[in-house]
């Protein structure tokens, strides 16, 4: 009986070591170049991200997103672009500086964050490629970056991950999150 327990413990330990090794190999494959499958190519392959790809192209960021990375990309879907105000869209189309800054505000270079990573970042900020910070808010299973909800589990590529979001987050407007209005302070007694 004692020999059986020892053999079982050894078998479990070997399984754990094997699982850890397999996980490291899978992670290495997910963060390596993966035969040219990039976040840019993954976005191009998803028809719901056609407007995101169009704006990335217009901003001249396709080579960046085909680069080494790793990247975390928060890609607004087509509906997100269609629901933006006319003023925001006009500013993006008429001013290349606004367009480039806006598109870079959806990209973070240096880490391919998992959903678990993002869930652990409630109340923290991410420094995006335009140099501005993007707040992360977590409520239950819902993750928001700026005023945008992450709507899926992520699209993995060889150089990062794309999270589809339901809003275009404009630089300087990341705090558009629906927060309760502040109550003015009570006057102090005399």
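Q: What amino acid sequence fits the structure above?
A:
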């Amino acid at each position: 009986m004692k020999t059986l327990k020892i053999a079982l413990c050894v078998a479990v330990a070997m399984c754990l070591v094997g699982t850890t090794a397999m996980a490291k190999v899978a992670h290495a494959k997910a963060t390596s170049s993966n035969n040219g499958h990039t976040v840019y190519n993954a976005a191009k392959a998803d028809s719901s991200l056609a407007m995101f790809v169009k704006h990335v192209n217009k901003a001249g960021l396709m080579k960046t997103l085909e680069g080494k990375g790793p990247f975390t990309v928060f890609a607004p879907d087509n509906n997100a672009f269609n629901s933006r105000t006319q003023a925001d869209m006009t500013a993006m189309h008429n001013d290349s500086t606004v367009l480039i800054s806006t598109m870079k505000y959806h990209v973070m270079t240096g880490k391919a964050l998992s959903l678990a990573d993002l869930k652990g970042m409630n109340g923290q900020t991410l420094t995006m490629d335009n140099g501005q910070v993007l707040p992360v808010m977590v409520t239950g299973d819902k993750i928001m970056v700026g005023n945008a909800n992450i709507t899926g589990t992520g699209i993995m590529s060889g150089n990062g991950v794309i999270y589809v979001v339901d809003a275009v987050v404009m630089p300087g407007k990341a705090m558009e999150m629906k927060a309760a209005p502040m109550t003015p302070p009570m006057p102090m007694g005399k």
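Q: And what stands out in the fold?
A: The longest helix spans residues 2-31.
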